Each structure stands twice: as structure tokens, then as C-alpha cells.
Amino acid sequence: MSLKFALLGLLTYQPMTGYDLKTIFDESINHFWSASASQIYRDLGTLENEGFVTSHIEPQEGRPDKKVYTVTGLGEKAFMAWVNHFPPQLQCAMRYEFLVRIFFGSRIDPQDLIFQLQKFIREQQEDLRHIKTAEEELGQSEEYPEIEKFYWGLTASMGKKASLAAIEWAEESIREIQEFTAKQPESTGLGKN
Amino acid sequence: MSLKFALLGLLTYQPMTGYDLKTIFDESINHFWSASASQIYRDLGTLENEGFVTSHIEPQEGRPDKKVYTVTGLGEKAFMAWVNHFPPQLQCAMRYEFLVRIFFGSRIDPQDLIFQLQKFIREQQEDLRHIKTAEEELGQSEEYPEIEKFYWGLTASMGKKASLAAIEWAEESIREIQEFTAKQPESTGLGKN
DNA sequence: GAATTCATGTAACTTGTTACATGATTTA
DNA sequence: TAAATCATGTAACAAGTTACATGAATTC
User: Which residues surround strand D, with CB < 7 Å?
Assistant: First the structure.
């Protein structure tokens, strides 16, 4: 449900192609709601069928033609209705497959676990850097109204806090695993069955 | 992919029904990977077709019969293979629909936004309390080996940190929205269409 | 010469959600 | 007497992933 309205919302700023939307997504909304290119193209088709957007082809030379989507009046109304009606239960779920593996950590070789946690930290640091860069660019740019920049900044803040929490957790976890396995005699429950 | 292996993993502790699995899920893995009852029953069927679990009916009086699932040798091997082979990119994505709405916060009445953020805080506090309770019960119980309790504790830690980060963020955001809207003249970009 | 960027999608598949159906027992 | 708990699922649908296909221009 969310993706369609997120696309509609981005298109209220200006008409764009599916490719543009994907690019913007990856730099912003992606940090708390991801979407693949094929999903975006498919949902744009749905939005067009529903009369929420229209499209026109812009021919280009040396590059593939562009298909530019524009929000209709109906689409703008639908977006405003969606964004202003919060569901009774605010939807927000973590989907950390990595944590499912940690849950079953007793079946994993502690050395490998620590290695994966270190990798996790690097990935989260990368994410953090990415958000910070986007944030700085946004702060310097003058092509967006202050109010948009303000709210985009709030979501970036949440992204940073989530990454920092994950990094802190992983660092503590590594230390705790080291301590725990040090005082653990031998058998870890790790069987080769 | 993950859900099937999470179920398989839980079943390696002891044979259980779909209902049992759903109950355990809601108290533990649910905090970072959610699943509905119908999905669990469906995936149990798949696991059985794949030969990873077997089932038998236990008749009961006054209550519906139980269908108890047991992991096979093949299933245990499949689980061990899954849990020990981390994907090249560690999968962990937030899916916070709420943040998508905040991203478009300029289209929302600031008073309503603040109200929803306060609600968000209450929901996160509820989650936090829930995790803490589960954690305490786990600490006191003596029916699980120390090593399992240790790793379950690590995942609970991450859940707590995530909730705390969200609460902190929402509190700061409320203050920032109040400041921002105070110094903002009138028009918010909030249109009635 | 290989990879990346630009630009579009389709098809097949897997995963996740929602609504529905059944029905006795127990607790509030 | 209304609800929650125990216990199972099916059916229909919506959302998300993966692999594939095309092809010129540009950058490494």
C-alpha cells in the first residue's frame, strides 16, 4: 500500500520517470522503506490504470526514450487522503534476517559469528555515512523549500539513530560473545550432527 | 526464506504445533521478523512436503486435536546449513510505514503529526516493556540452557535499543516540529487538495 | 575491453496480509 | 453474556524478489 503512495507523493513535487523515482528512492525513502525497480515500474502501471497518474513519452537521442509520469488531480487527492489518515496501529516492523541467525547463535561457530558481526558493523557504518552525505547535500541545496528539507531531515535523523543503535549493539555483542565463550568450557551445542 | 528456517530452528528444540510456534514467535523472533498464523501453517505444510519435518495428530478431549511437528534428520541438516551460511549482503531492512508519512510531513497538519508521534512513543514504550518482561522471564527460567539464553538475550538487547532509539527520535522530533512551526509564518504547504 | 549509467519493462515466483470458517472451554 | 484461549486451516489477494532482455553512450 505504502509504495504506491510514496511514488505518488514524490510525483507531486514534479513529473518524473520510473528511473528518476528509483534514484530518489535509493537516496531517501529507501532507508526505511525499500523498493526494487521492477516493483516501481509495476506500481506506476497500476497508478496509471487507477487514473492517479498520466504518462507521456519523451524521445531522446542516444539514450532510451523517457516515460514521464504526472500526477492527476484525482491522484493528488488520493495522496492527501492517504498521508492524512494514519492507521489505528502505526505500522513499523524491523525485518532483520541477521537477527534471526543471531537468535540461533548457539549453532554457529563463535569465531564466524564475530566475523559476521564485524561485517555487520561495517555495513551499518556505510549506511550511516550514506545518510550523512545525503543530509549534507540536502542542507546545502537551495532547490527545495525549507519545510520539505525539515521533514526529510527528521527521517534522516531516524535513519542515523537506527544505524548507531545497531553499531553499538553489535560492538557490545562481540565483547559479550568473547567473554561468554571464554568462560564456556568446550561443547557449545554446536553439533556436526 | 527466513521464516521456514526460523520455524525449523524452533522445532529443533522440541516438537511443537503451529499454534505453539506462533506463540513463541510472538514473544521472541517477532521483534525483528514477524509472521502471521496463516503463514506459519502454510510454511509448515511446505516443510513437510520437503521432508524437513513430519507430523502426527494428538487427539484431545474438549479441545481441538493437536498436529505436532517434528524435525527430521534432513530438516536438521538443512537448518544447520542455513544458519551457518550468511548471505554476502547481511539482510536487514526497516519497514516503517510511519516514516514514509513523516517524509511527507509538510502535507500534514502539525498538530496531528505531533499527536501521532506521541502515539508512536506510547507504542514503542509498550514494545519496550514487552521485551523487558520477556527478558526477565527468560532470566529466571531454568528450563533452557545458558547458551540459548545468552543468544536470545542478545537479540532482546537489539530490540530494546531499537525501541529506545525510536522513542528518543520521536521526542526530539516533537520538539523540533514545535520550534519549526512556531517560527513558520502561516502557510505550511498544507493545501486542502 | 569491461563496467557503469541511462531507461524500459515482463514473467515467474515467493512471501506476506486479510477475511473467513469451525467450535468447545474458560475467564471476566 | 461477551471475550479470550486453544487449535486448525483455506482462499484470494497484495506486495516483494529474481532473473532475464534490450541497447547505445560513456567512463575506467
Answer: A 1-4, 34-36, 38-39, 42, 62-64; B 17-20, 23, 37-38, 41-42, 44-45, 60, 63-68, 93, 95
